[in-house]
Amino acid sequence: MEIKILGIDIAKRVFQLHGINCFGKVVLKKRISREQLSNFIANIPPCLIGMEACGGSNYWARKFTSYGHEVRLMNPHYVKPYIKTNKNDAADAEAICEAVSRPTMRFVSIKSVEQQDIQALHRYRQRLIQGRTALVNQIRGLLTEYGIVIPQGITSLRLRVPQILDDQENELSGLSREIFNALYQELIIADQHIKDLDKRIMLLCKESAYCQRIMKIEGIGPLSASALISAIGDIHAFKNGRHLAAWLGLVPRQHSSGNRQALLGISKRGDRYLRTLLIHGARAFISFAKRKSAWLEALIKRCGKQKAYVALANKNARIVWALLAKQVDYQSAH
Prior knowledge:
- By secondary structure, the protein is α/β, with parallel strands linked by helices.
- The protein has three domains: 5-108, ATPase, nucleotide binding domain (Nucleotidyltransferase, domain 5); 113-207; 209-326, no CATH class.
- The chain is 56% helix and 12% strand.
- The strands form two sheets. It has a six-stranded mixed β-sheet with strand order 3-2-1-4-5-6.
- α5 (113-145) packs antiparallel against α7 (174-207) and α6 runs antiparallel to α7 (174-207).
């Protein structure tokens, strides 16, 4: 049994395999458990293995690559059109096997353990920030029930809550003061955890030459730099800077037909977290920079600041590709 292309539909406990030979004939249809998968793949001759990019795919891709196989990951949306009939594990594995053999298929780069570590750090920080935002909203909402209104912004809440707890003339009872004091202490702990993670991310950026290189771009700081480096992987997977910007969802969405070209808003494809960091970084630079390039000044005057934020984020993404792909230093135009 000589397998040229092997499609694997991965899951938690059960895996479906579909293999074809060099003539396109099906030579393998097998359902296998998690414990058996590693040994089975290690004992077959090197071949092309295709999988969907999902939970656990990077782990299996690294393991199969160590066995001598060529592994390619694909976006599940690109695999779905190859499912011929009803959806099941066997049909999914067959579709994966078919999709990975297409010459125009786009693949997802395999992430290393270090990249996954940085991404896990960012996901942990993001969850803490979301939890802190929910905590702040709860404190503000509960205080409103007692007739105490705090201005918007977490800074205002940090300043006002201690003053409110010390004020003996408001309507807060002894029990409510204990509750708000506990909530405030929880906020302080969350702030400290986020600060610790920020320091850890800053340390990782100092140790990475790639992060140091792209942090010179206006609007890209330690958060954006580390998140981009961990997500991009092999920069040569993108043909040019526009492909990277399109992967981040920062290019116009098209709905064109015939000679009518219709460009809509940005596509918002890819990782929302990365896109948010780039746009917020562009917003910070445009809002606070004293000196801007002529291109940026003309863009703001022509389109307004909101569109300029996205345009600068798009431009920064293209610059990131150029710096990483060509191994050059950034020359500021601002």
